[in-house]
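SpoU rRNA Methylase family protein (Spirosoma endophyticum), 174 aa
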Amino acid sequence: MRKLSLSELNRLSVDEFKDTDKFTYCLILDDIRSLNNVGSVFRTADAFRAQKLYLCGITGQPPHRDITKTALGATESVVWEHVSDVVNLVKQLKTDGWIIAAVEQAEGSTSLSDFIPEPNKPYAFVLGNEVTGVRDDIVQLADIVLEIPQFGTKHSLNIAVTAGIVCWDFLQKM
């Protein structure tokens, strides 16, 4: 067995990626402080062909060297938009037929392992601040609150790790 070279991976070019159909979900990052986390989520959104990445509140935006460093070019391939007011964004997406899924530990949450996405429905996954999580008003607006099962001593996962788990799980179930 040997590792494949980059040329053997047959990855899409940025232009090919832009022209390729995306999966029916988007990611909403709200008040993410770490620019490295933002860059990492860009890479995840590229790897799992998210339709769009929304950067809300104080979440940093490209161009910024710390985002660029971890995004490895994904800021050029992933469609993104900065939206200052996450509440208005979530309300508009709901009006447009998106299912809002807050990723948070909350009373009555659904374990990600039990989550069954509705076929042919677009999903917007909301990921909140590294310290305070998804804000309460967004949890209240959400159609579903998803919780990633954890079995260790810590009570949370890094935002970039969370994004990867949620995207992978969603695509596996679709």
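The CA atoms of residues 43 and 73 lie 8 Å apart. The two ends are 31 Å apart (CA to CA). ok done for today
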